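User: Can you fold this complex?
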Amino acid sequence: MHPPIDYESSEEALDRAVQLLRPAKAVAVLTGAGISAESGLATFRGAGGLWEGHRVEDVATPRAFLRDPELVWRFYNLRRANLAAVKPNPGHLALVELENRLGAGFTLVTQNVDGLHQAAGNKNVLEIHGTLRRVRCVCCERVTDHGVEPLADLPHCAACGALLRPDVVWFEEPLPTDIWDRSVSAAASCDCFLVVGTSAVVYPAAGLIDVARMDGADVIEANLDRSAASSRVDVLLLGPSGTTLPELIKRLH
Ligand code: BJW
Ligand code: ZN
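Assistant: Here's the predicted assembly.
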């Protein structure tokens, strides 16, 4: 662990990040909503992070769905519709270049449910909070992939007729076990851990940063602003990830 460097000088920060990333054989990346902001998708917290005046904590819980499934489906159907209109941005594409460079040594753990990493071309992607593309029956648990095609306002299961829900992880729900275990392994065994566009306030996802640090990885953060993780990273690349990530990857050559 090096003293955290909150660089005013982005040149110096980029140089340091290159020094840490270039020799790494195994790299794990944790992404959050910020990496998709430049594709036009809203983040959850901060300015403009509200949806119809609701906090994410008020719509993304099993209790909210039980209380008002129509409201919750409005939120998710709107986001599914937005997905049909967006494309990966240069930040996503930089991570594809990084995977191409590292091959099997690369793991991308994402909290995002938008599928933009796979659309960009990343292969080893672990979606720890699920995906907007799939729905799950609340009764028979059948999972179906509908891509971004429009769904009914209140969709029901074709097999048993019960209510469907988005196949995402809400607050107070466990993460998918196998995907989570693989994420922890990747964080624990990497040489360098890259944290991109997350406020790092949601657990257990944010805990991966500590897993990586405790197991000796160097940690690089790319964020528009300081996050809850910034005081415990080695280098902070302040700025839009659609600019900082391509610059970082370019300098590895
Ligand atoms: C840019 C940028 C640009 C902008 N370039 N950067 C008290 C303490 C600790 C933990 C808890 C607690 N009370 C409860 C908990 C646990 C809870 C939790 O963490 N709560 C905290 C909020 C307090 N966690 C859970 O409940 C989890 N489950 C769990 O713990 O299970 C345990 C269990 C055990 C046994 C039985 C049962 C359960 C589940 C968490 C699920 C989170 N789900 C959501 C919704 C997913 C579906 C959906 O998308 O609708 O996941 S919530 C939402 O937050 C979503 C995100 O993935 C997640 C993280 O948000 P993210 O990505 O960080 O976005 P933002 O908006 O917060 O930040 C954006 C960042 O981008 C900012 O930093 C910007 O600066 C930056 N940015 N533009 C670079 N251009
Ligand atoms: Zn069913």
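Residues 69-83 form the longest helix (15 residues). The chain has two domains: 10-41+86-129+173-252, 50-85+134-168.
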